[in-house]
């Protein structure tokens, strides 16, 4: 049996929704980075709110905090990019990603604590030559093992980019800003910092994001 979790809100604002226990077993997805024309940022947000992907197992539209015209879409069923010519800069960047591991704390019945995930992090890791297995272990085992301890980390995805050898990523989504700050100061990020010199070609790239719209189909 499947149910939909639809979280539709202006970026950074949380709306109560039906919450569900999830078992997300999708293994491949597409990550697309879009840049809005300077005068069309609000229109792109409106476009996502109006056209979120109803048929996809996981679909999350994100707005980057430090670059207001930059958006990222995480899509577990590639059905084309929302690249309306009048709204976006040319050439959105689309990459296939393997979901190595995922975790969700969305539960039934809905509570204020798990009402939605309005803020998140997009993190990129570049492994040193010969260190890809170590980075996989870092994400799939070390980081994954502490996510359950973080009460306000609502959704988490560990990613590998098969078309770019050595490139990995994490998507984190939190119930509020306090949860994001706790995560950044917590064991998961400490593990990343500890592995940087040994396993990473460069420091991990962290971007704060606001969730524009989310749709997840899960098994219950």
From TrEMBL:
InterPro entries hit by this protein: Dimeric_a/b-barrel (IPR011008)
Xref: SUPFAM superfamilies: Dimeric alpha+beta barrel (SSF54909)
Name of this chain's protein: ABM domain-containing protein
Organism name: Armillaria ostoyae
């Amino acid at each position: 049996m499947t149910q939909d979790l639809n979280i539709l809100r202006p970026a950074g604002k949380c709306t109560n929704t039906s919450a569900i226990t999830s078992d997300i077993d999708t293994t491949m997805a597409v990550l697309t980075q879009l840049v809005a024309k300077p005068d069309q940022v609000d229109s792109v947000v409106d476009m996502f709110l109006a056209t979120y992907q109803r048929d996809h197992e996981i679909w999350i539209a994100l707005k980057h905090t430090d670059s207001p015209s930059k958006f990222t879409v995480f899509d577990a069923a590639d059905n084309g990019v929302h690249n309306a010519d009048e709204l976006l800069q040319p050439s959105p960047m689309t990459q296939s990603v393997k979901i190595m591991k995922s975790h969700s704390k969305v539960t039934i019945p809905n509570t204020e604590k798990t009402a939605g995930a309005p803020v998140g992090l997009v993190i990129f890791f570049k492994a040193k030559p010969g260190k890809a297995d170590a980075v996989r272990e870092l994400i799939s085992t070390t980081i994954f093992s502490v996510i359950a301890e973080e009460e306000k980390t609502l959704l988490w995805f560990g990613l590998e980019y098969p078309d770019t050898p050595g490139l990995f990523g994490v998507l984190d989504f939190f119930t509020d800003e306090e949860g994001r700050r706790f995560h950044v100061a917590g064991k998961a990020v400490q593990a990343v910092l500890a592995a940087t010199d040994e396993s990473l070609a460069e420091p991990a790239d962290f971007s704060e994001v606001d969730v524009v719209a989310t749709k997840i189909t899960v098994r219950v």
